[in-house]
Design goal:
By secondary structure, the chain is of the alpha+beta class. The protein is built from 2 helices and 4 strands, in the order ββββαα.
C-alpha cells in the first residue's frame, strides 16, 4: 500500500461522480476532502461546486477520470452481455436435463418472448449493418 494519497477523489454516483480535492497539509495532518465539482459521465458536464473556479489541472484530472470511467463502464457492459450468453447456455442445459414440467410451465412463455424480442432486434441491427456496408448500385 502506498503512503501517498492521490490529489483527487471521485465518489462514484449513478451518472458520474462528486469530485473532491484531497488535502493532508493541515495542522492535524488529517485527511480533508474538499468537494470541488460534480462530473456527469453521460453528458460530459463538469459543474464546479460552491462557486469555485476549477483550474486547468482540475479540469484535466476530471476529464481524464471521465474517459477512464466511460471505458470501464463499456467493458462492464460487454462483460454483462457475455455473462448473459453463458447464462442462456446454462438455462438451456437446465431446461433439457433438470427442469420439471411445472418449472418449464413457469418460465417458458417469459423466456420465449424475451428471446423472440432479442432475436428481432439483433436480426434488424445486423441487417442494418450489412446494408450500410454494401455498396449501392
Amino acid at each position: 500500500m502506498t503512503t501517498e494519497l492521490p490529489e483527487y477523489y471521485f465518489r462514484v454516483r449513478e451518472n458520474g461522480a462528486m469530485v473532491f480535492r484531497i488535502d493532508t497539509e493541515n495542522r492535524q495532518r488529517r485527511i480533508e476532502m474538499d468537494q470541488i465539482a460534480v462530473a456527469n459521465v453521460k453528458n460530459g458536464d463538469i459543474k464546479p461546486h460552491g462557486g469555485r473556479e476549477l483550474s486547468e489541472a482540475d479540469m484535466a484530472a476530471i476529464q481524464k477520470w471521465m474517459e477512464a470511467r466511460r471505458a470501464q463502464l463499456e467493458e462492464r457492459n460487454i462483460d454483462d452481455i457475455l455473462r448473459t450468453v453463458d447464462h442462456l447456455n446454462l438455462t438451456t442445459q437446465w431446461a433439457q436435463s433438470k427442469a420439471t414440467d411445472d418449472q418449464l410451465d413457469t418460465v417458458t412463455d417469459s423466456l420465449l418472448l424475451a428471446m423472440h424480442d432479442l432475436r428481432t432486434v439483433l436480426v434488424r441491427k445486423k441487417a442494418d449493418r450489412i446494408m450500410k456496408n454494401t455498396p449501392q448500385k
